[in-house]
Specification:
The chain is of the alpha+beta class. The protein has helices at 27-40, 130-143, 154-168; strands at 5-6, 45-47, 57-60, 75-96, 99-117, 123-129, 178-179.
């Protein structure tokens, strides 16, 4: 089922998400719905807060990105914890399904070590680099209540203020379902 993506201005996007356990209701169905929603929205990552759930879960699929490692990078991350971010930082233009039609350069580390559970509750500790690391950091920020616009230069954020206000009030055209903050 395709779910609405929560837009900038929704309170759930600003809250630190809670861990879940193996008994979380219909987790496999939720994961399937998240992938369906992400694909319908042309995304490469989606965090649970973006569909209104304050839980520590996000998904990724970097199949469309050249030279991404691990190959395709289609993964589920449950209760992830960044253990280390390191190596050079680099700027790259990011966007977000919750903040449509807004893009800006974000400076992030090129490598990280992440501990997480997959959809079968197998625990992993893995090093990611390049675009995979960037996608994880972006989605991880969502479960910490941080948006990519929080990580851009303050002047750029000021320049985007009216566009962000328009998004929060539902004055934006997108090709996917969205849920906007109450007016």
């Amino acid at each position: 089922m395709i779910l609405p993506v929560y837009a900038y201005g929704q309170p759930v996007l600003r809250k630190k998400a809670s861990e879940i356990d193996k008994d979380y209701p219909n987790l496999q169905g939720l994961i399937a719905d998240m992938f369906e929603t992400m694909y319908a929205s042309n995304g490469i990552g989606l965090a649970a807060p973006q569909i209104g759930l304050g839980i520590r879960l996000f998904i990724t699929d970097g199949s469309e990105i050249e030279d991404i490692k691990p190959e395709g990078f289609k993964q589920v991350f449950i209760n992830p914890q960044i253990l280390e971010e390191f190596d050079e930082k680099w700027d790259y233009e990011e966007g977000c399904l919750s903040i449509p039609q807004v893009r800006a350069d974000v400076n992030r580390h090129s490598k990280l070590v992440l501990r997480y559970f997959d959809e079968n509750w197998q625990e992993h500790t893995h090093e990611f680099e390049g675009m995979a690391a960037r996608i994880i950091q972006h989605e991880y920020d969502h479960i910490e209540g941080i948006l990519f616009t929080d990580r851009i230069h303050p002047l750029k954020r000021t320049m985007l203020k009216s566009r962000l206000n328009n998004i929060s009030q539902g004055r934006v055209n997108v090709s996917y379902k969205m849920k906007f903050a109450k007016k």
